[in-house]
Design a protein that fits this description.
The protein has helices spanning 3-12, 59-62, 66-73, 107-111, 116-122, 194-202, 218-227, 240-253, 275-281; strands at residues 21-23, 26-29, 42-45, 50-53, 124-128, 134-141, 147-154, 164-166, 187-191, 208-210, 231-234, 258-260. The longest helix has 14 residues, at 240-253. Strand 9 (187-191), helix 6 (194-202) and strand 10 (208-210) form a beta-alpha-beta unit. The protein is of the alpha/beta class. The strands form three sheets. Strands 1-2-3-4 form a four-stranded antiparallel sheet, with helices on one face. Strands 5-6-7-8 form a four-stranded antiparallel sheet. The chain has two domains: 3-73, no CATH class; 107-285, Dna Topoisomerase Vi A Subunit, Chain: A, domain 2, CATH 3.40.1360. The protein is globular. The N and C termini lie far apart (51 Å).
Length: 286
């Protein structure tokens, strides 16, 4: 499949094509499905005719073919492209085999205002990865309260590769981080990262989850529909990717839902908001 056809699909999806680069038979750039700002998170190989999201595995949900990409981007399948039918096989995730030994009283967490008891309650702590790099690890549960893995972020991010990494087999496209804390199914507040989610929960905001990026995948949409949610509050980062993703969510996917997007400029992330701003912006959901 030619690069030109996939490039046109990216343009029709309103992706920022200026962030993509063509090298030989490959297109690389930020994932147009789940969003984010990692310029190497997504690729399309014209020789093989397949695409891949290297950070969230979005192709596992929609299919790695060109028609699967069309489904993911919610654009028409180009003329002449064979349409394949993909039935997701990840409705149920396997329980994660072991518990990590999380350090709840690490100085980095204390500097961010997280004492050991709070970290233990939310099951976050510091671990070392296989490169002996310290990371903050967040325990992930599925909608049924089953522990299915961890997601982690390097404390000293060097600016190369993905900021977030997940344990093998963790299909984040079928999970909402923080779902074990849901108390009311009339509304749902979406944040990008576990940090944002926990920050709002600590300040008394209810029904907050993280989508592992500025997008709501097909699998996450199934969760929202299963829960019977009628109101979505989109509190993704207020950068270009987050704003564009929130606009797309409002226009395309949830015409039958009330979708609200609180404005918290000049702050970029939810976890940058001072306490008074959290109380003001999310007063209805505290």
């Amino acid at each position: 499949m030619s690069l030109e056809i996939v490039w046109q699909m990216l343009q029709r999806s309103h992706a920022d094509v200026g962030s993509f680069r063509i090298t030989g038979e490959e297109i690389r750039g930020p994932c147009p499905v789940h969003g984010g700002d990692n310029l190497t998170a997504w690729s399309y190989n014209a020789r093989l005719g397949i695409w891949r999201c290297w950070t969230h595995g979005c192709q596992d949900v929609y299919g790695s073919s060109v028609s699967g990409l069309a489904r993911a981007l919610n654009v028409e399948v180009p003329s002449g492209v064979k349409v394949d039918i993909v039935v997701p096989n990840v409705n149920k995730l396997d329980p994660y085999a072991r518990r990590w030994n999380l350090q709840y009283d690490h100085p980095y967490l204390q500097q961010r205002g997280w004492d050991a008891d709070t970290c233990r309650w939310f099951e976050i702590g510091v671990v070392e990865d296989r490169h002996n790099q310290e990371c903050v690890a967040f325990t992930v549960y599925d909608l049924d309260g089953v522990h299915v893995g961890y997601t982690k972020r390097a404390i000293r991010y060097q600016g190369s590769g993905s900021k977030w990494r997940h344990t093998d087999g963790l299909r984040t496209g079928w999970l909402l981080y923080g779902s074990q804390f849901l108390t009311d199914l009339n509304w749902l507040i979406l944040t990008e990262s576990p940090w944002d989610c926990l920050y709002l929960l600590r300040h008394g905001v209810r029904n907050v989850v993280a989508t592992f990026g500025a997008s709501l995948t097909y699998g996450q949409r199934q969760i929202v529909e299963r829960l019977g949610i009628k109101r979505l509050v989109v509190a993704w980062d207020r950068d270009e990717a987050g704003v564009r993703a929130a606009q797309r969510l409002r226009k395309v996917w949830f015409r039958d839902l009330v979708v609200l997007t609180p404005c918290f400029e000049p702050y970029k992330d939810a976890d940058e908001l001072p306490s008074w701003a959290v109380s003001y912006l999310f007063e209805e959901w505290i």
